[in-house]
Amino acid sequence: MQLKNLGIAMVIIGIVMMAYTGFNYVTTEKVVDFGPIQVNKEVNHPINWSPIVGIVLAVGGIVLILTNKKTT
């Protein structure tokens, strides 16, 4: 039963990773701090992955689901 749940989760994550190949997050860095005057800079940090990773996860999840059905 746990392998089936893991397989389902892997398929869902794999499909999401195929649909969205990355995301960005923004941090704020202090550039100047001179008493009451502060200058901040927003920096984008992209996180990208290949859609092949999503395909591998989805196929691995399907294999887990199918092998779990055969053993029960």
UniProtKB/TrEMBL annotation:
Membrane-crossing residue ranges in chain numbering: 7-27, 47-66
Keywords from the named record: Membrane, Transmembrane, Transmembrane helix
Protein known as: DUF3185 domain-containing protein
Species per Swiss-Prot/TrEMBL record: Flavobacterium fructosi
